[in-house]
Amino acid sequence: MANGETRFFIGQLLNKPGSTGALLPSSGRLAARMIENARIQPDSVVAEYGPGTGAFTGPILRELKPGQRFFAIEVNENFAGELEKRFPDLHVHRCCASGVADCCRREGVDRVDRVVSGLPWAIFPDDLRDRILDAMLEVMPDGGVFVTFAYLHALLLPAARRFRRALGSRFSRVESSKPVWLNLPPALVYRCVK
Predict the structure, then answer these.
(1) pLDDT tens digits for 83-93?
(2) For the chain, how many structural domains are there in total?
(3) Are 121 and 148 in contact (CB under 8 A)?
(4) pTM: predicted TM-score of the whole model, two decimal places
């Protein structure tokens, strides 16, 4: 990521810490692991939650084939504006991810098969986390896949443990990847199947 984008990201962290949960943008290695775990299918509708500066957005766009649909949901207005500049064909919905059903209506789709999330789950209150997860499950068919990540150093914190339990209570299968050591901080990917 270019130095200007890193400065922009850090600026958003300082100005809007409630919507920016990382110190630095995610690495290309983490992005590759996220996309690999999403396993986007030929007719998939893909949504990205909390794309920030687009660390996962670019790789998702490169992965897409004709017939696949993709949109992003970003609550931070500044991030949303930068995403639209970087990816002019991307539809960016400026709302909370709990409004995914409305985003689907505006996109003209009735489901989301794959959700790739960069949301800062560990800083969310439990009720917000639950609203977002439950709204996602409402638009996700059986066999749908949700991928997100967690920082290794935070896995033992109460919020991280509650998030992992919330995933386990909602999805039929929750898998954890090997650590992505070349991310700052190191992280693992959760792959959740409905």
Answers:
(1) 999 999 999 99
(2) 1
(3) yes
(4) 0.88
